[in-house]
Design a protein that fits this description.
With about 130 residues, the chain is of the alpha/beta class. It is about 35% helix and about 15% strand.
Length: about 130
């Protein structure tokens, strides 16, 4: 009688280390990514002489160089933007409002918007600026 050994299957390569790498990459990109909404057009903020880090959260009003307005990435006219801000203030009066104006926008166009935002009930309004070069 001839006995033969049963061949064992080769163990397949495990993909567990690959899954670990994918999760590390996911966590890495979540930590370095910005979670704020961005303007649908180019906005280069003014350069600050002094200042503090910008707080997170809230809503963002973007003002383009040509006077284009956007609220949280959605372009609209001044009345529609102010209605959106008023609705957010009605939901939560402590909502932070960020004003992200292009550096070439005249201040006389920005200040009336800030006054209207205050009239809508905003407690905190932050103007976004670029930190000075080192």
């Amino acid at each position: 009688m001839k006995l033969t050994r049963i061949r064992r299957r080769e163990t397949p390569e495990t993909i567990i280390p690959l899954i670990d790498v994918v999760f590390f990459l996911l966590v890495f990109f979540m930590l370095i990514g910005r979670m704020d909404t961005t303007a649908p057009f180019e906005v280069t903020p003014a350069v600050a002489a002094t200042g503090q880090d910008m707080p997170g959260g809230g809503i963002t009003l973007s003002i383009g160089a040509q006077g284009i307005l956007a609220l949280d990435g959605q372009i609209g006219d001044a009345e529609r933007i102010m209605a959106g801000i008023a609705a957010k203030m009605a939901e939560n009066p402590a909502t932070l409002v960020r004003v992200n104006a292009h550096k070439d926008v005249m201040l006389e166009h920005v200040l009336p918007l800030v006054a209207r935002i205050e009239a809508a009930g905003a407690r905190d309004i932050v103007v976004v600026v670029t930190p000075p070069p080192p």
